[in-house]
Every structure is written in structure tokens, then in C-alpha cells.
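Re: that backbone. C-alpha cells:
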């Protein structure tokens, strides 16, 4: 039976479910679906591969995902690895593992890829909640982020395909549907329009949930839908990253701290029970103590309690890696302080 090891985000979780179903009858195959969001994530991927090889000396190990796309040579050098595939090739993995592997590394240009894997998942192993991918890639270029170079440009799954996937999952008995994507709010032609069509098409859907939401792209139509449809799960996770406007500009984010506070207030106005989570980066280049304290204050002012906090991690090739760096120990200290603030707000 195939073993699929997933590291990283919800998109990876979704794609891993596809791989599990595609290769359900394949013996001695291990697929490692990697993450590249930080250097630590890449290190953990390599560590995982070594452990898997020790435990499975006769298996065929395929490394794919974002770390394989960004840094294929680091995995190709590993004797534990049989095959390295990029994110584009992941969707056609079956054709690369037939017979003897001749070429160890096959990683194409992700920016020339304008498709997505349209395989319909019929279930999510061991889960009550099912993820539905609505888009891939990202057209924005935040200065710290390597993800567009791993995932390519924004491309949306057609509305009828999204509805078809949800229908299959509901028939299988899933009651929680989570819409996910690399940049879900940039869904074309309209993220709010898609949400409305889903709610109208499936009025008995118990719970519609969302992955990470971009505060700059959440519009008033979406807020109105939150107020109208009680089956929208009232927890919203926002990609905030900082509470300081200068740092947000240097990150090339499209929102300011005022927009985050305002969005949380708008949603609470129509759903008083709403709760919020957010992603934050601590110790971004040039972040002063005052800039960091603006982030701490934002968490309290916006009432954001469930935080995903990351010390800043330099990614080669990004503009932020060339900026004046904050010492690593300071990044870690600030991350600890912010996590504690989030726990206090959540209580």
C-alpha cells in the first residue's frame, strides 16, 4: 500500500489525498509531499526522507512538492531518494514511476503551467473535514515569500468543478467543507461569488469553512454572506503577517493594520460569535522594537486569538533576504512573546 507523507499547508494535504487515492493499490511506494515555506521546513523534509529510508529499505521514495520544486538538487543528492518531481509533475506522477526510473530529477517551469489536477477525491482518510481546492498559485510578490516560485501563477478551478467536488464529498457523508488555495481570495472571477453559489447550490451544507484569507481581498459582499448564512463557520484565519504599517509596506502586503481591525469589526457586527486567527512573521528585516509592539497591540485591538507565529526565515532569491536582518535570537524572542499574547487573547 502506498504511503504519502505530508509536510506543510492545506494545499499539500489536499494533494496528498489525491495521491493516496491514485496509488491506493501500489506496493512499496512512498511519496513525500514537501514544504518550502522556511529553511526549517526544508530541513525537516530531508530529515523525514532519511528516516523513511531507514524504516523502508526496499521502498521507492519519491520526493515532490514545494521544496522539491524550489531546491531539487538538495534532494537529488540524497542517496535515500529515488525520484524528485516538481509540483507540475506531481499531477502526472503515475507516468514517471512506471518501470525503471532513468532520470532522477524532473522539475519543470512552474510558471508555464496553467492547469490543475482535476482528479475528484471521493474521501479524506481519517478526517471529518474535507478540503476543496479552488485555486492554485499566486500573482502577488510579497518580499519574504518563496511560494509563487514553487506554485506558479494564479489559476482558478472552474466553478462547476468546485461544485461537483463538493457534491461528491457531501454524498460521502462529510459535513465540513473547507475551501482552500494558495491565494484563495484571488479566485477568478470572484471569491465571494463562488461562496454564494456554493451556499445556494447546497443549502443543507452543515459547515462551510475557509483556509487563510487575505484581509486586502475580503470584500463587503463576503461579509454580507457571513451575516446571511449561518452555515458559514464563524472562525476566520487571516494572513496578516505584521501589525506595523511600515513593515507591511516592506513586505509588499496590500493591507494596513487599520484594514485588519476594520475587517474583524465588520464580521463581528454581523456574527458576534466570530473568532479570528492569523499568521504573523516576527523579526522581519528592519523590524524595530516599536514596530513589533504595534503587532502585539494589533492582536489585542483586533481580538485575534489563534495565532500561527513564525520567526522570519530568509529565503534565497527573495527581496527581503537582501534587507538588513534582525538577529535570529531576537526573532525567536519576539515570536514567543506574540504567541503568549495570542494565548491571552484566546482565553
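Recovered sequence:
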Amino acid at each position: 500500500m502506498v504511503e504519502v507523507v505530508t509536510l506543510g499547508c492545506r494545499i499539500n494535504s489536499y494533494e496528498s489525498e489525491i495521491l493516496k487515492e491514485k496509488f491506493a493499490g501500489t506496493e512499496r511506494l512512498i511519496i513525500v509531499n514537501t514544504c518550502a515555506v522556511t529553511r526549517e521546513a526544508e530541513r525537516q523534509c530531508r530529515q523525514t526522507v532519511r528516516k523513511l529510508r531507514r524504516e523502508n529499505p526496499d521502498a521507492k521514495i519519491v520526493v515532490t512538492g514545494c521544496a522539491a520544486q524550489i531546491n531539487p538538487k538538495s534532494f537529488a543528492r540524497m542517496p535515500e531518494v529515488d525520484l524528485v518531481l516538481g509540483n507540475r509533475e506531481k499531477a502526472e506522477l503515475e507516468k514517471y514511476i512506471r518501470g525503471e526510473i532513468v532520470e532522477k530529477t524532473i522539475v519543470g517551469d512552474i510558471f508555464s503551467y496553467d492547469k490543475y489536477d482535476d482528479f475528484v477525491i471521493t474521501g479524506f482518510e481519517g478526517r471529518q473535514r474535507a478540503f476543496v481546492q479552488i485555486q492554485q498559485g499566486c500573482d502577488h510578490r510579497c518580499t519574504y515569500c518563496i511560494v509563487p516560485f514553487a506554485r506558479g501563477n494564479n489559476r482558478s478551478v472552474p466553478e462547476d468543478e468546485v461544485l461537483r467536488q463538493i457534491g461528491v464529498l457531501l454524498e460521502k457523508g462529510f459535513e465540513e467543507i473547507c475551501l482552500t488555495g494558495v491565494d484563495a481570495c484571488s479566485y477568478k472571477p470572484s471569491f465571494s461569488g463562488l461562496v454564494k453559489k456554493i451556499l445556494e447550490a447546497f443549502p443543507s451544507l452543515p459547515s462551510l469553512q475557509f483556509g487563510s484569507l487575505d484581509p486586502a481581498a475580503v470584500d463587503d459582499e463576503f461579509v454580507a454572506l457571513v451575516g446571511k448564512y449561518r452555515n458559514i463557520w464563524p472562525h476566520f484565519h487571516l494572513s496578516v503577517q505584521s501589525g506595523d504599517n511600515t513593515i507591511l509596506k516592506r513586505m509588499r502586503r496590500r493591507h494596513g493594520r487599520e484594514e485588519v481591525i476594520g475587517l474583524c469589526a465588520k464580521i463581528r457586527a454581523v456574527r458576534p460569535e466570530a473568532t479570528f486567527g492569523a499568521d504573523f512573521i516576527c523579526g522581519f528585516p528592519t523590524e524595530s522594537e516599536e514596530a513589533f509592539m504595534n503587532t502585539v497591540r494589533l492582536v489585542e485591538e483586533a481580538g485575534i486569538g489563534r495565532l500561527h507565529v513564525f520567526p522570519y526565515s530568509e529565503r534565497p532569491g527573495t527581496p527581503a533576504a537582501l534587507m538588513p536582518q534582525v538577529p535570529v535570537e531576537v526573532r525567536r524572542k519576539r515570536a514567543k512573546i506574540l504567541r503568549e499574547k495570542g494565548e491571552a487573547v484566546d482565553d
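Residues 328-346 form the longest helix (19 residues). The radius of gyration is 21 Å.
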